[in-house]
Amino acid sequence: MGVSRDAISKYERDDNTPSVEVAKKIARTLGVSLDYLVSEQDNLEVVDIEMLDRMKEIQRLNNDDKSTINKIIDAFIRDTKTKRAYAS
């Protein structure tokens, strides 16, 4: 990550505050969003960084491809919910 143990220790003790760039590296290393890392709210969900990266790639696709992917995802979610309902 390129951050010394001493610096991390100071961040943990609130003796120092990391720069935005360092905070982004810490968040990426921990697999969370920067919002999650700096939030004081206890109810934030951890964002799956790999899924977020996939979503960014999907956004770059043409509209037809996006529509196809959305239909596949919707069908998978529907089927998963149905399986859970019948398993109960």
Automatic annotation (TrEMBL):
Keyword flag DNA-binding: yes
Protein known as: Helix-turn-helix domain-containing protein
Domain of life from the UniProt record: Bacteria
Query: DNA-binding: is it a keyword of this entry?
Result: yes
Q: Which species is this UniProt entry from?
A: Snuella sedimenti
One GO molecular-function entry: DNA binding
- UniProt keyword annotations, A-Z: DNA-binding
Which SUPFAM superfamilies would you find in this protein's record?
lambda repressor-like DNA-binding domains (SSF47413)
